[in-house]
Write a structure and sequence with these properties.
- By secondary structure, the chain is of the alpha/beta class.
- It has a single domain, classed as TIM Barrel.
- The protein is built from 15 helices and eleven strands.
- Helix 5 runs parallel beside helix 6 (162-174) and helix 6 runs parallel beside helix 7.
Length: 392
């Protein structure tokens, strides 16, 4: 029987599960009393405290921030599980993470936060938000020091404090961070639009640093689709009012909407025209929608040319400056790669989140098996290395 071709495999969006004392240990001592932490409220329910205020959307459900291979019903039932119950060692222990990568045939992992995708929008003090990012970035660099060839730190930057964002991204780059995670949520940048003049120094800085940015889904208390939520409540067995049937699935599915909106805003507001060397990765929104969306953007631009500063078609900017992440469960990835071009797609495990699974490399390889070997190599690893400037 033919042997399987060994291909360099890069997980373009893996996650860590920050230990509950990360910010207590890594934030400046003068801010320690305002550090992000996990505690219990007056009812004994575990909560994530951000500047002393609870993240109500995650109350009693912090285990669901991880949870790979576990029951969503158990983790999402308020108060049944704690944060650590959903945390496999590979989420917080770098040695264990390398073992998971070996078992999954992953050579290199780009690592993103988990608690970090939950707190923005709850902070009103811009300088504190930057301090939270600085603390996390110090921790993730230490985490990845276990094997800097295989564990690649991605810096968390908050745009609420534009000047602080510039300074922190410079510091993080010196520490070895390969890219930047940005929340797509407007509240995370104080309501500023992406082309706000106050943010211009940040975009220029990441362009000059040759440091790609990425939008990723977030967990937040207020959703863009709030008018679609609410209605009849069903009585849960423990007496607690549960969400209306289907609402959790609705919200979970539409987490991708923030990323799609942020990407579209970057495009239509001319950021790729103004900063031609700025690079953007579109993460955890799936990939199978992108060709239809670029077709739509191209068409709408042609109709509305008088109202746009874009000199190229959106599809041309995308191919010049972007990649999108495919998820292992998507069914037509090979056709998308074939239509879009093999240079513009990476893949992601999302380990160790609740919607992740094991054998993801086997799954993604099966999805793209019909492609030429050269194209498979690009999607599995070469595109991520090229995009982030990582030595193989």
């Amino acid at each position: 029987m033919p042997t399987e071709t060994r291909m360099l495999t890069v997980d373009a969006d893996g996650h860590v599960l920050e230990p509950r004392d990360t910010w207590l240990k890594y934030i400046e001592p003068g801010l320690r009393d305002r550090a992000i932490r996990i505690a219990r409220d007056e009812e004994g329910i575990e909560v994530l405290l951000v500047d002393g205020r609870p993240h109500l959307g995650m109350r009693g459900r912090l285990g669901a921030l991880g949870g790979i291979g576990m029951s969503s019903e158990e983790l999402m039932s308020t108060g049944q599980r704690c944060y650590e119950d959903g945390c496999p060692p590979g989420g917080y222990d770098p040695a264990a993470r390398l073992d998971v990568m070996d078992a999954e045939s992953i050579d290199i992992a780009l690592l993103y936060p988990t608690i970090g995708i939950s707190w923005e929008g709850l902070v009103t003090d811009a300088k504190l938000a930057t301090a939270y990012c600085r603390a996390y970035n110090r921790w993730i660099v230490d985490f990845c020091a276990r094997d800097r060839r295989r564990l690649v730190p991605i810096a968390h930057i908050c745009l609420m404090d534009p000047e602080g964002a510039v300074e922190e991204v410079k510091r993080a780059r010196k520490d070895g961070c390969a890219g930047v995670y940005l929340s797509p949520d407007p509240a995370a940048r104080g309501g500023r639009q992406l082309d706000d003049p106050e943010l211009a120094p940040f975009w220029a800085t990441v362009q000059d640093l040759d440091m790609p940015i990425a939008f990723h889904v977030v967990v937040r208390s207020q959703t863009l689709l709030a008018p679609w939520l609410g209605g009849r409540n069903d009585q849960a067995s423990d007496g607690e009012l549960s969400r209306p049937i289907g609402e959790t699935v609705f919200m979970f599915t539409f987490l991708a909407l923030d990323v799609m909106a942020a990407f579209t805003s970057m495009m239509t507001r001319g950021l790729f025209e103004t900063y031609p060397r700025l690079r953007l990765a579109v993460l955890e929104a799936g990939s199978n929608w992108i060709t239809a969306w670029l077709d739509r953007l191209d068409h709408k631009l042609e109709v509305m040319r008088p109202f746009s500063s874009l000199k190229l078609l959106p599809s041309e900017y995308f191919k010049r400056q972007c990649v999108i992440s495919a998820e292992p469960d998507e069914s037509i990835t090979a056709k998308i790669v074939d239509h879009l071009g093999a240079e513009y797609v990476v893949w992601a495990s999302d380990y160790p989140h609740i919607d992740a699974s094991f054998n993801v490399v086997g799954q993604i390889r099966e999805r793209i098996a019909s492609l030429a070997v050269e194209s498979q190599r690009k999607v599995l690893g070469e595109n991520a290395l090229r995009f982030y400037g990582i030595a193989p």
